[in-house]
Amino acid sequence: MNSLHGWQRVSFVLLHVYVLGVCGVVLGAFAVQFLGKELPCPLCILQRMAMLLAAVGPMFIINRSSIQGSDSKSDLATGFGMSILAAVLGLSISGRQVLLHILPNDPGYGGVVFGLHLYTWAFIVFITILLASGITLIMSRCMTISTHVEHPRVASRLTAWVLGLVISANAISVFVESGTTWFLPDNPTNYELIDEFKTYLQENSSERTGESQKAS
Predict the structure, then answer these.
(1) pTM, to two decimals
(2) Measured at the alpha carbon of residue 182, what is the angle toward residues 84 and 175, in degrees to the nearest 5?
(3) Mean pLDDT, the chain, whole residue set
(4) Going by C-beta distance under 8 Å and a sequence separation of 6 or more, which residues neighbour residue 175?
(5) pLDDT higher than 50, residue 1
(6) Which helix (H) or strand (E) holds 94?
(7) Is residue 27 exposed (0-12), middle (13-18) or buried (19+ Cβ within 10 Å)?
(8) Which residues pair with 113 in a beta bridge?
(9) What is the enclosing helix (H) or strand (E) of 117?
(10) Which of 9, 29, 140, 170 could cysteine-pair with 4, CB 3.0–4.6 Å?
(11) For residues 171 and 177, what is the distance between their CA atoms, to the nearest angstrom?
(12) Can you tell me the distance from the alpha carbon of 58 to that of 42, in angstroms, rounded to the nearest whole number?
């Protein structure tokens, strides 16, 4: 692999930190969901999706850096452009949820982490993504990875796997929570797919019992 020096090395490392940092935030939300037993509402799920979309931009740049003949300046603009659009989308979603609970004495939705609800933390995360993306684009002259990386490092492959697994886990979590209806209530209290499966087993068991009674 061609070695990176100076700001290019810093930029390459920061891209991995960016992706893994966003994945860490989503994994923290999973911890609240499964350990704290707090099911995410539709707005919470959309915020997770926006965060993961924002992480796809830097991952795109990391991947493109290993492709011979790629336009590094265009890749940087495309990657962080994707992150900015995703952050703006997430900011509007999390901002809406903050405003829904902004009135005095409103307890908010779900528990708090370090004094703030998850949607408030999401709002802060999206602002951070916007600032980081904007600063990187302003400093694109020295942050562009113009050196071709012949073989991706272990860290790059691991980062790609982590992002892919978190995206897959989020998709599975949404499917289990929504079931086959594809619609979630504002305040979900159960996993619809599990309830549907239990109902199916009960109905199937009742049918078998009825058939056995008729046969006897």
Answers:
(1) 0.85
(2) 75
(3) 86
(4) 193
(5) no
(6) helix 72-100
(7) middle
(8) 116
(9) strand 116-117
(10) 9
(11) 10
(12) 26
Tokens 């046969």, located at residue: 215
Would you say 118 and 48 are in contact if contact means Cβ atoms under 8 Å apart? Answer: no
Using CB atoms within 10 A of its CB, is residue 19 exposed (0-12), middle (13-18) or buried (19+)? buried
How far is the C-alpha of 126 from the C-alpha of 86, rounded, in Å?
A: 9
Classify 123 as helix, strand or coil: helix
- Give the integer Cα–Cα distance in Å for 171 and 192: 14
Residue 86 reports pLDDT greater than 60: yes
Q: Are 122 and 51 in contact (CB under 8 A)?
A: yes
pLDDT in tens, 93-104: 999 999 998 888
At 105, is the pLDDT very low, low, confident or very high (cuts 50, 70, 90)?
confident
